[in-house]
Design a protein that fits this description.
Blueprint: H1 11-19, H2 29-45, H3 47-58, H4 62-88, E1 93-94, E2 98-102, H5 110-121, E3 125-129, H6 135-148, E4 155-157, H7 162-166, E5 177-181, H8 184-193, E6 199-202, E7 207-211, H9 217-229, E8 239-245, H10 246-249, H11 252-263, H12 286-294, E9 300-302, E10 315-318, H13 325-328, E11 335-341, H14 344-352, E12 356-357, E13 359-363, H15 367-376, E14 381-384, E15 401-402, E16 405-406, E17 423-424, H16 437-452, E18 464-472, E19 475-480, H17 486-499, E20 503-507, H18 514-520, E21 529-533, H19 540-548, E22 553-554, H20 562-565, E23 570-578, E24 599-600
Parallel strand pairs: 2-3, 2-5, 3-4, 5-6, 7-8, 7-13, 8-11, 10-11, 13-14, 14-23, 18-24, 19-20, 19-21, 21-22
Antiparallel strand pairs: 1-17, 6-16, 9-10, 12-15, 18-23
Helix pairs in contact: 2-4, 2-6, 3-4, 3-6, 4-5, 9-11, 16-17
């Protein structure tokens, strides 16, 4: 039993907090930055308390919690600096509004703190609703913020059952951002309940690592084990699919090396520092139990074993086929399914053949294979010759594509995460008027040339490239009605022209036209295209169809700043590439890479 108790918030308590106000919203941005930096210092000083609480509450291993504390500190410092950067850009905004952060149990320190600090950096008030089995850890983290000077009426720690919040998330939602990290099904449920919900969600993953025969086999296995079984596989970023080139798939030697390496992992008590696979934070889920029930002994290279409700030994399922239930389904546990690929083209097809697009990895010493894989994988975070987990703030901004992301979708720990939450005022010239279309085009072109066409490695770490780039969509469908501002239409036209993206403009469908419109324009509801909506009369049936297919509708009023407006037509991608082997640099220097910015997705 844990040595604490806490009270769940009622609807009345939540309503009272929402109705309140706070001096935080009129605090100058420089003071906000100083306060959040102080919070980072408190987290440094209380590292052991945060780690110990997560260990007692969730059975989270010390090494896993340690990196979480570091990530939370990085979030505090980076988001605090982000708001100073936006001030330098002369993007004016108001701080009215309140956010709700719905955080999970698998990362009880970094994820809740990341959402909370981004909200506070934007000048907003925020409610943290942690997972009820991770409430104590979240509370200790919140104490760091309160003690740093964040007012309690700016940050509300209000754990409660999910049902208590449901009434606030329906029509007339009081939040101007609901920040969710959780299951794809949860995001869809919330959007079905309220198609207008301002949801910003990082959701599930079905992530793969492709290993070629021309690779360092031992190093590849080591990276794979870290990717698949750290945190007992309870990471949305964890490698769940191993795609082997045919030669390796048929190699008994490689198979034995993989099996022996996984068998060597110590499973059990997270209080023992040599434990590699600790307790699950929740009882083994029904999907895993059903999989174990429906598969025979011969299907497993290494069959997982249950030890009570909270311990599951690692399992390797051999011979997963394209389209299989395991190929398509997220299991969230220490399981790895193995598939066979003829070559890198086939491997990319298998990796992309899932509804998710969060992380993906390749192990190869063939630069041609690496280049093809990098330019064709549909995922937010790509990893080359390294593990597929452990994204670091700024170095590898984190977030996915397809059904791994709902909402505007800027990457956590990246340059646009706080920006997406700002209530931006119109961009005006010194005379108080909106810029002319010619000036707007100039602003857009400058943003394109200086920001969006660039692939950058801001870390410049010797031995590892960390490349951040923008991918532009293939086409844009603009929806308008008779009330749409003509100037706004022109801004979208200019943005698409500057970015060289084909644009189609259509009148928004009425209720009885929705089905036919969707069928006629089906290409815009699959693949890498974008719906830009400038109508206030978009039918809910249309929104619900898009939400169900994880297709976000970009409905923000066009902005005269290219730094802001061009975000509506891109995806962000992070690439982390280890180019050293056992300390040897293989002839590559920091900053030398040939990955292009602004590729099409």
């Amino acid at each position: 039993e844990t040595p604490w108790e806490y009270q769940l918030a009622t609807s009345d308590i939540i309503s009272e907090f929402i109705a309140d106000s706070s001096s935080w919203q009129i605090t100058p941005f420089v003071e906000r930055q100083k306060t959040l930096s102080r919070a980072a210092q408190f987290m440094r000083e209380r590292r052991s308390r945060l780690i110990g609480t997560a260990l007692m509450e969730l059975g989270k291993q010390v090494d896993e919690s340690d990196v979480e504390v570091s990530e939370a500190i990085d979030f505090a410092n980076y988001y605090a600096q982000s708001i100073l950067k936006e001030e330098d850009q002369k993007l004016y905004y108001n701080t009215q509004g309140i956010h709700l952060v719905l955080s999970p149990w698998n990362f009880p320190i970094a994820i809740p703190i990341g959402g909370v600090i981004a909200s506070l950096a934007a000048g907003k008030r925020v409610i943290l609703k942690p997972s009820t089995n991770a409430a104590a850890t979240a509370y200790v983290a919140c104490q760091c913020l309160w003690d740093a000077g964040v007012p309690r009426n700016a940050l509300g720690f209000l754990p409660s059952e999910n049902e208590t919040y449901h009434s606030f998330l329906k029509s007339n939602c009081p939040f101007d951002a609901v920040i969710l990290t959780g299951a794809t099904a949860t995001a869809k449920f919330l959007l079905k309940q309220n198609p207008l919900l301002p949801l910003y969600a990082e959701t599930g993953g079905k992530n793969s690592t492709y290993i070629e025969d021309l690779s360092d086999h031992e190093q590849a296995i080591d990276n794979l084990i870290q990717s698949s079984f750290s945190n007992a596989g309870q990471k949305c970023s964890a490698t769940s699919l191993l795609i082997l080139q045919e030669e390796l798939y048929n190699s008994d030697e490689f198979k034995q090396k993989l099996c022996n390496a996984v068998k060597s992992l110590k499973v059990g008590d997270p209080w023992q520092l040599d434990t590699k696979v600790g307790f699950l934070s929740t009882p083994v889920n029904e999907r895993i139990l059903e999989l174990m029930k429906q598969t025979s002994e011969k299907d497993w290279l290494l069959k997982p074993q249950l030890r009570g409700d909270f311990v599951l030994t690692p399992g390797i399922l051999w011979g997963v086929e394209n389209g299989d239930y395991y190929h398509q389904t997220e299991f969230f546990g220490p399981l790895l399914g193995v598939m066979k690929a003829k070559d890198v083209n086939h491997a990319v097809e298998l990796a992309n053949g899932v509804t998710f697009g969060l992380t993906s990895g390749i192990e190869s010493l063939n630069p041609t294979s690496v280049e093809y894989w990098t330019e064709n994988i549909h995922a937010g975070n790509l990893y080359i010759n390294r593990s597929t987990t452990g994204a670091i703030v700024q170095r590898q901004p984190f977030g996915g594509m397809k059904q791994s992301c709902f909402g505007f979708g800027m990457k956590a720990g990246g340059p646009n995460y706080v920006l997406q939450f700002l209530n931006l005022e119109p961009y005006l010239e010194e005379n108080g008027l909106e810029p002319s279309l010619a000036i707007i085009k100039q602003h857009y072109q400058e943003a394109m040339d200086n920001e969006f066409s660039q692939a950058r490695d801001v870390s410049l770490i010797r031995g590892q490239h960390n490349i951040y780039r923008y991918l532009k969509v293939h086409e844009v469908l603009l929806l308008i009605d008779v009330d749409t501002n003509k100037s706004d239409i022109e801004k979208v036209k200019i943005a698409c022209k500057v970015m060289e993206i084909p644009l189609e403009i259509h009148t928004v469908p009425k209720g009885n036209e929705v089905v036919n419109f969707i069928q006629t324009h089906q290409k815009y509801f699959s693949g890498n295209r974008r719906i830009r909506n400038l109508s206030k009369n978009l039918p809910n049936e249309f929104r619900q169809y898009c939400h169900e297919n994880a297709y976000h509708i970009y409905s923000r009023i066009p902005h005269s700043s290219g730094r802001v407006e061009l975000l509506n037509y891109i995806e962000e991608q992070s690439i982390s590439h280890n180019y050293h082997r056992y300390g040897n640099m293989m002839g590559i220097q920091p900053g030398e890479f040939n990955i292009q910015g602004l590729s099409k997705i």
